[in-house]
Amino acid sequence: MTMLPLPPFFDPASVGQIWPVPYQERASLARQWAQQHNIAPAAQDRFKIALIGIDIQNSFCIPGFELFVGGRTGDSAVKDNQRLCTFIYHYLAHITHIVATLDTHTAMQIFHPIFLVDDRGEHPSPLTLISHEDLLHERWKFNPDIASSLHIDPDYGQRHLLHYAKRLKDREKYDLTIWPYHVMTGSLGNALVPAFEEAVFFHTIARSSQAEFDLKGDHPLTENYSAIGPEVRHGPDGELIADRNMRYLSLVQQFDAIIIVGQAKSHCLAWTVADLLEDIQATDPGMVSKIYLLEDCTSPVVAPGIIDYTDAANQSFSHFAEVGMHLVRTDQPLEHWPGINIS
């Protein structure tokens, strides 16, 4: 049997809510579930599949939190995760390993309001886009009051800010975006969505496969949309401030298929896939066919009347398909995906 039934506790209506996962109960049921459905330990998989969940956290996926990814419909992330959790349970016996990234921030980071000030000492509002030209004309400047906390001097902070925006411009990246304070270290928003966390835990016990958790985005002087690399790696004097994470390339080398899902399609997911593509092309371009983008489990950032990254996200996915990655959906049976061998 390729597709398993949904476990009795899973309620799609609860996916957009916060609640504690009853770990001991789920562990007991997962063991029973594995016995009942003859689910073998993941180590026995002949065709190995890894699922990478990008930033499936309360801040991005629960309505009312600070950066809920509503997409154009207003409820996209909830629907995405309903489909994702259903997919994990249906194909529990074929998903070998799960990796979950957690965007993890503190207040004093380059994309949060406190990092910059104007001539009146006011901070930029959330969703303000700051260009290199804005900084050259001193519409915004580094906030010298936070220099001591960051263990830098105010002059360095200003030079870094100008250098940073110039690097974004040169690399044709989005302008520096000032986000609301979000996924703050240790906060409720930083945690995984309970329904997804529960599915990952259930998989861990049923398949005897320890899930992997990757915290990213905590360096104060650079954005880190991608799980693989920071937006800017070097400071104004050529010094390394943050380096690339090669773990994801090793996953592609170790597994037969990599399924990538999560939020947001226009930012953290797209940037992760773009960086992974760069690493694959530099190592073994043939591995690009191992990548599967589950496109009905991800949505773009949309703030109605302010910003809408839907078209940019779709363009990125079109490019990924053109270079050989697979765009797939949860309503397509896993065994029918090109290159998947789970019969």
Characterization of this structure:
It is a single chain. With 343 residues, the chain is α/β, with parallel strands linked by helices. It contains nine helices and twelve strands. It folds into two domains: 37-105 and 182-266 and 299-330, Rossmann fold, CATH 3.40.50.850; 113-177, no CATH class. The relative contact order is 0.17.
Question: What are the SSEs and their pairings?
Answer:
Blueprint (H helix, E strand, L loop, with lengths): L22 H14 L12 E6 L3 H4 L14 H15 L6 E7 L12 E2 L11 E2 L1 H5 L4 E2 L11 H17 L5 E2 L16 H14 L4 E5 L30 H8 L2 E6 L5 H16 L7 E4 L7 E2 L3 E2 L1 H13 L3 E3 L15
Parallel strand pairs: 1-2, 1-8, 2-7, 8-9, 9-12
Antiparallel strand pairs: 3-5, 4-6, 10-11
